[in-house]
Amino acid sequence: LHDLIPDEREASIESAKLERCRYFDTLVKGTQSAAESIRNGRELGLELMSSKYNLLLFQIVVGDDNDEYSEVQNTVSAAIEDMADRSDNVTVIERGIEGWAFILMETDQKTLENVLADFIKRLKELVSSFDNIEYFGVIGRDINRLSEMNICFSEANRAFAYRYLQKRNCIVDSREEVPLILKNRPQDLTIP
């Protein structure tokens, strides 16, 4: 990628992000075996071999100043993706206007809970260092096979759908707080 001229490099990076997003969409459909998921991920440069996984869905919202929106959005997005890319146990998938999906993995050195706690702490610190940025995130449920990512995503995404009804600047654990979100919803909101 470094040998390409700037426009070609940017197009190549965008193409790689799009391929990762397509891979993630396939992953959360649950139509592939664990071996297929790992092999297809490796073809995209993703190392997803682990004994336990979880997912963090995350979105930022930039303040009201439209003149600064794109510049600030791009700066914060680049910082988030750079931090995630430097994390050994985290794979980042950019999901466009939906924000990001971070696949978190347990290793021999770190339990999944430690990976989650460390990554969330660093993510909150990073986002808090910018003015006029709010965020909302949801943690899914622990799974033992990559082929079960559809289960993890389904739970996290259900809670993530309520991000516009909840306070911002928080990360919700779908294993614990979804019932509170559903219980405290406006009465006229119908849930399928």
Summarize the structure.
The protein is α+β, with helices and mostly antiparallel strands and 192 residues long.
Query: Helical residue percent?
Result: 40-55%
Q: What oligomeric state do these chains adopt?
A: single chain
Radius of gyration: 17 Å
**Uncertain stretches:** 178-192
The residue-averaged pLDDT reads 85
Count of individual helical segments = 6
Give the strand order, joined by hyphens, for the main sheet: 2-3-1-4-5
Secondary-structure content class: alpha+beta
Major sheet summary line = 5 strands, mixed
Distance separating the two termini:
45 Å
Structural description of this entry:
This protein is α+β, with helices and mostly antiparallel strands. It is built from 6 helices and 5 strands; from the N terminus they run ααβαββαβαβα. It has helices spanning 6-29, 34-43, 66-85, 112-128, 149-160, 174-183; strands at 53-62, 90-94, 100-105, 133-139, 170-173. The protein has a 5-stranded mixed β-sheet with strand order 2-3-1-4-5, sandwiched between helices. The chain is globular. The N and C termini lie far apart (45 Å). 26% of the residues are buried. Mean pLDDT is 85; it is low at 178-192.
